[in-house]
Amino acid sequence: MASTIDDVFIKIGEFRQFQWYQFAIFGYTLLSVSAFPVMVVTFITAEPDWKCVDGYMNNTVCRFNKSITLTSDDYKERCKIPREAWTFVDDFTSTVTEYDLVCDDSILLSIAQSCSWVGMLVALLVGGYISDTFGRRIIWYGGCALAIVATWIMVFPKAFVVFIICRVFIGIGAGFRNSTSFAMLTEFTTDKYRSWMGIGSFMFWSVGISIVPLIGYLVPAWRMFLLITAIIAIPVLFFW
Questions:
Q1: Can you list the domains of the chain with their CATH numbers?
Q2: Which of 130, 154, 192, 196 is the right S-S partner for 166, CB 3.0 to 4.6 Å?
Q3: Which residues contact 33 (CB under 8 A, 6 or more apart)?
């Protein structure tokens, strides 16, 4: 009777150093290439409070003498006020403050928040087929590298269109990574450990989305925030 792949793994070791190595690598990429880049947009597109500029405060142009928070009923009143009459409260910076994504331009904020998910959807739909043709490892590594490079590019340029394009590529890269990693992670052990390997790796996602708010709290400048997440992802480039 011919041996199955599970029979071979039982003889050579179902879960040894190689499997632990795999688990750590794929878990780290889930944290740094998927959880970080995808969830960071919640913070780098955050809307800060606003207030009237001193010269316009308490007059017919801008009647508020306090900071207006996001939850205030008056938050959108700024759209009725000349732009030079109000300013953002300097608690933190984001793409909203840098590109002035308010009022008529607020639709761009929604695009910025959703475009990475569009890229990920496309990659998830085609990633399996492409990996069957060219190999899972190539598509996995290519997706990771694409997301990392796009994150680095997004840190520096001033053009909002570059930000949008990079967000799309981050989604594509994360999608390629996600569409291949589960199979790669579980095919090198027996069915005794496959569910543990596959589901257990998602604890790195939980850790990642838990760390993102902490970084956002400690680093109020959105470009520096992105730079930190980009630096954390650099080791992935050596995982080939």
A1: 5-45+107-237 (1.20.1250.20), 50-89 (no CATH)
A2: 154
A3: 143, 144, 147, 148, 173, 174, 177, 233, 236
